[in-house]
Design brief:
2 copies of one chain form a homodimer. The first copy, chain A, folds into 2 domains: about 110 residues, Aspartate Aminotransferase, domain 1; about 210 residues, Aspartate Aminotransferase, domain 2 (3-Layer(aba) Sandwich), CATH 3.40.640. By secondary structure, chain A is an alpha/beta fold. The longest helix of chain A is centred in the C-terminal third of the chain and has 22 residues. Chain A is about 40% helix and about 15% strand. The mean pLDDT of chain A is about 95. In chain A, helix 8 links the parallel strand 5 and strand 6. In chain A, the strands form 3 sheets. A 7-stranded mixed sheet of chain A has the order 2-8-7-6-5-3-4, sandwiched between helices. In chain A, helix 3 runs antiparallel to helix 10, helix 4 packs parallel to helix 10 and helix 7 packs parallel to helix 8. Chain A is built from 13 helices and 13 strands. Chains A and B meet through helix 1, helix 3, helix 5 and helix 10 of A and helix 1, helix 3, helix 5 and helix 10 of B.
């Protein structure tokens, strides 16, 4: 069986599995959501506001507080998960440039809509090849790029990216920056949110999925100052695409400072600790530099299939690299979880040769 | 301000409104959902099963129990609300036949995808013009038809529809039957679910929205024995389009016999009572025969705008007919609610001339 995405615990057929294939904040659902679940239950029998006015206000407040940018209702596009936002934006373009390896849904959306896809391979150290991107964007309409990228964990180098940004702004090309994991960098400066004020070509994707540990709730959004483009996109969206539980989640978790702060402390610690320990494992040749909550590893003397099977036999689910374009079965991706679980992975890996 | 759909209480700007514009079961959220909400909370931090195996099993059991048809996983298509299912199906066709007046999203989906839309007007008594549909389907790829229809409440006459069904089956045309309100007819024989066994051209749309009073949860689905067509549709769907609360709702409310039975008793009573009372109102010229939980009314001596404003001043939201194709502002649509609220409407209407 092949796994297109991480987190597919259902196809594995094993219960009580520790899922390191899915990169979700280990603190789990913010208590501020659970505490306000009754508000969602009261909304159930009503159709959502077609304009999601209160929800958008919540997003605006969050973005104002952390990024000091004012986003009005017109600057926001909402989706039933980030995949819906990504899909609707990509569906507008006929020539799509995608650095690889990356999240497979970028390419799926492009292909589904009959677009031509051009790849820009990451360098050997898994950083972006900015020169190659600059060359190839000349012949594309849109660049879809992760910040940080998945599965490699690298962020965009703002200095090196500037030339691409300026070119796209001048030549009416769109840059979609997928910042689904950006909060895990712990550094607001890494985000391109503030750059939207200067660059209309930028569309930034965010979600509640990863940092707020809510993949089941289905909520993602895009922000951009290209109001005309967003208006066009909203025009083809279906009404009521956000459920009432997601509405309530946005309202509470984005202002849950306790959850945000403890998560930042955790990731800062484990981002240092876990790779160090993994580098001591004899079949791990390399752990790539990551700025977020997952680690791409290169294997040596064992392939992904073998390590997957062995790990699964120990109750651990890992993500193989074999179906990422530009990777092969000598790569795996591991989530960073809490200290106890990270150590569990280390223990399981250590016992492999014994 | 114009209201494209019922239930847009957010644009009205009045709180504590009694919403007769939105046709939701007045029993509200089934207790069987609330009682199992913790199951959904536990699912929040996991991505949903990309194949929604358990959810589909729940649907199959329900359809087997009430309609005696076996639907396998391949026979089901899931959507983030019925609108998503309708949209993805309609997007496949270039010539769409729609009886009118009807739910505006049929046409929106067709237009968005650049399809040509042909109308078949309902007859004066708001029944379908089967001869006209038969003539026009010859030049269309797909028929999108409500059963019961919204806003008129009429069901399809199976005898008269047979000729259209046979023709579409033989000529590879698709018939989308929107049965979002079918449970309110109280008669399983009115549904075309069982006919899918004989007719591959049939695709039936259902939802939790109306009968189970869960518009906020966003869940709709399609059933068909045209496996190849559904497979193609699933191929262009985005992953994880159903949230975990909808998953849990399907699991419990569809087998909630208490809720289903009390709802059937209520609608049977009020479907007789409310129209009788409305017919006594002097500005209501006609209440059309309805087989479900809403009533289309023709006004006389007052227009929809005037009655809308008057009703709103009394805390009552009604649906004007003016933006339904084929109707005008001499029509309104009213939901059927419980006896107390229905009587409240009668009282408000009675006082209009005093």
């Amino acid at each position: 069986m092949d796994y297109l995405h991480g987190g597919d615990i259902y196809s594995v057929g094993v219960s009580n599995i520790v899922d390191f294939s899915s990169n979700i904040n280990p603190f789990g659902v913010p208590e501020s959501f659970n505490a306000n679940i009754n508000e969602a239950l009261l909304l159930l029998t009503k159709y959502p506001d077609p304009h999601y006015r209160e929800l958008k206000q919540g997003l605006s407040l969050y973005l104002k507080k952390y990024y000091e940018v004012n986003f009005l209702r017109e600057d926001l596009l909402l989706g039933n998960g980030a995949v819906e936002v990504i899909d609707i934006i990509i569906s507008f373009f006929k020539n799509v440039l995608i650095p690889v390896p990356s999240f497979s849904e970028y390419e799926s959306s492009a292909r589904k809509n009959g677009a031509k896809v051009v790849y820009s391979s990451l360098k050997d150290d898994m950083s972006y090849d900015y020169e190659d991107i600059y060359k190839k964007i000349q012949f594309s309409d849109v660049l879809v790029i992760g910040n940080p990228n998945n599965p490699s964990g690298n962020v965009i180098n703002k200095d090196k990216f500037r030339k691409i940004l300026e070119f796209c702004e001048k030549n009416n090309k769109i840059i979609i920056i997928d910042e689904a994991f950006i909060e895990f960098t712990g550094n607001i400066e890494e985000s391109f949110i503030k750059d939207t004020e200067k660059y209309n070509c930028l569309v930034i994707i965010r979600a509640l999925t990863k940092f707020f540990a809510l993949p089941g709730i289905r909520f993602g959004y895009a922000v951009s100052k290209n109001i005309k483009f967003l208006e066009e996109l909203r025009g083809i969206q279906l009404p009521w695409n956000i459920n009432c539980f997601a509405e309530v989640a946005v309202k509470y978790v984005l202002k849950d400072e306790g959850y945000i702060n403890k998560s930042l402390i955790w990731i800062e610690e484990e981002k240092n600790y876990f790779p160090q320990q993994l580098r001591k494992i004899n079949f791990i040749e390399k752990v790539f530099e990551s700025n977020c909550n997952f680690l791409l590893c290169k294997l040596n003397g064992i392939n992904g299939q073998q390590l997957f099977n062995y790990s699964l036999s120990k109750g651990l689910l890992i993500r193989r690299g074999n179906n990422f374009i530009g990777l092969d079965d000598s790569y795996i991706r591991l989530a960073i979880k809490d200290r106890i679980l990270n150590e569990e992975v280390i223990r399981i890996f250590e016992t492999y040769y014994r």
